[in-house]
Amino acid sequence: MDLEKIRQGFGFLADDQKWRHFHSPKNLSMALMVEVGELLEHFQWLDEAQSRDLKNNPEQKALVADEMADVLMYLVALADRLEVNLEHAVEHKMEKLLKRLRSADE
Length: 106
Known about the structure:
Order of helices and strands: HHHHH
Number of strands: 0
Shape: flat
Strand content: under 5%
Number of helices: 5
Distance between the termini: 36 Å
Radius of gyration: 17 Å
């Protein structure tokens, strides 16, 4: 997945719709949480088996995929505004988690 392509595409939409001035880190964080909530709504009343089976329901899967895309776009936009390299941030976080797990095993 090309995060730069997502950043540019979302930036184009923001510029085209004249939303860019609303895209402060605070507002992007709040929008991200709204989108995560909308994603959660698709799972709210499902049991574990139903949530796993959602992948076999093309209509529901498409709705969930749309919400997941919204979450990713807002996260990439937030990272752009804060000048955070998400790839490096994930790599760093994974290293920290691996160290913690290794320490717990000792």
